[in-house]
Write a structure and sequence with these properties.
This protein has 75 residues and is an alpha+beta fold. The protein has two helices and two strands, in the order E-H-E-H. Strands 1-2 form a two-stranded parallel sheet.
Length: 75
Amino acid sequence: MTYIDGNEPEFLLMQGDDDVIVSPSQTVLLHNALLETGAKATRYSLTGAGHASGDFDSEETLTVMADFIKKVIAS
């Protein structure tokens, strides 16, 4: 977060709320820091998923990722 200056590319932060490797609170801090500088950022929390869980291969999460990429490419 030290280097956030508002000139970052748009972020999609995806994390499981059962992640025991990286605390979900850290993702919230990063998300808020990005927004405070004017950077564009979207945070997506996957209920019941852990760190690097196979739950991120679901149709729902893949759609979120694809929609994000399409939006960034179009802008």
